[in-house]
Design a protein that fits this description.
Bact_HTH_transcr_reg; Arc Repressor Mutant, subunit A; mainly alpha; single chain; two-stranded antiparallel sheet; 75 residues; 3 helices; globular; 2 strands; DNA-binding
């Protein structure tokens, strides 16, 4: 019996789809982890795991003190 993906994966997949479709473009600033947690009704840890997965996928980049942004596509 199939199970639903973990909430952090659902959030990461939603952002991945927005990036791949061009809705979010390279250089666009993403909401804070707190804002994502509130928007999706999840814990801060779940939102952090979603952002970490996007970072692992090389779709976002963090700039200390400034925020998290959509990364330039890899060549």
């Amino acid at each position: 019996m199939p199970t639903a993906p973990a909430p952090f994966r659902e959030i990461a997949n939603a952002f991945t789809a927005k990036i791949k479709s061009g809705e979010l473009k390279p250089g666009d600033k993403l909401p804070s982890t707190r804002q994502i947690a509130e928007q999706y009704g999840v814990s801060m840890n779940t939102a952090y795991r979603a952002m970490s997965l996007l970072h692992d996928r090389e779709l976002i980049t963090g700039q200390p003190g400034r925020g998290t942004y959509v990364a330039e596509p890899r060549q």
